[in-house]
Amino acid sequence: MTSTALPHDEDAGPQLVRDGAPVEYVRALDRGLAVVRAFDAAHPRRTLAEVARAVGLAPATARRLLHTLQSLDYVGTDGQVWWLRPRLLELGQAYLATTSVWDVVRERLARLTEEVQETASAGVLSGDDVVYTVRVPYRRIMAMQVDVGSRIPAFASSMGRVLLAALDDDALEDALGRADLRPITPHTVSSVDALRAVVTGVREQGWCLLEQELEAGIQCVAAPVHDASGAVLAAVTVSSHTTRVPPEELRERILPALLRAARDIDEDLRLRG
């Protein structure tokens, strides 16, 4: 995709051509958003000179932009330093309010997939199965083919065990009593007592690691995600092949990334309300 500048009005900023079509562009808006992005966790407060340097603007231009943002209640100042104001949260809330729950989950899982370079998915409990609601495959020729809407047995999957762990004791016992525990691989937990112990452990630690119980060579880690009320909404998982990712790497590198993504989804959904 290529962009070139066309003649333009000074007030409008450069008009770009992208893929042969003109694209209107307002330089002042670009600069104003750049000023907002100059603040982050490492720099929650900045002087005018620091903002100007961070954004690459003349101090006079940065001052005008900051005062405009202050008049809109997006930034605050004590006369020496500047900071972001809570009203900026409205912009994020507007995005979340107009985005479906599964779009929120999909966006976070897409980032997770790129971070760990493995496939990430989400699913919900449906009877004795887990139904895939989101799947973000990593760019790999020999990726396992699973589509949204596919079903897998809850008792033999990492997402399923996370979702079973979220049930109350009576509902869990009902699910264990109904489950068809015939082994799928030589590694599948296939007794009620053993599965109950596994699910209890998942409930205590807040995540599940599963190795080759659903499919030979496939290992997964899973964690719950919660809706705005704090109830478990779904489970998210990362799957990999044992020939590509050693079990210790799954636990030490991929699991922490998955847990961070789950917390980010929780926070997005909490803000969404």
TrEMBL record:
SMART domains: HTH_ICLR
Record-linked InterPro entries: GAF-like_dom_sf, HTH_MetabolicPath_Reg, PcaR_PcaU, Tscrpt_reg_IclR_C, Tscrpt_reg_IclR_N, WH-like_DNA-bd_sf, WH_DNA-bd_sf
Boundaries of every HTH iclR-type domain copy: 26-93
A GO molecular-function annotation: DNA binding
Keyword terms: DNA-binding, Transcription, Transcription regulation
Pfam families: HTH_IclR (PF09339), IclR_C (PF01614)
Full protein name: Transcriptional regulator, IclR family
Domain IclR-ED: 87-271
PROSITE patterns recorded: HTH_ICLR (PS51077), ICLR_ED (PS51078)
Gene Ontology biological process terms, A to Z: 3,4-dihydroxybenzoate metabolic process; negative regulation of DNA-templated transcription; positive regulation of DNA-templated transcription
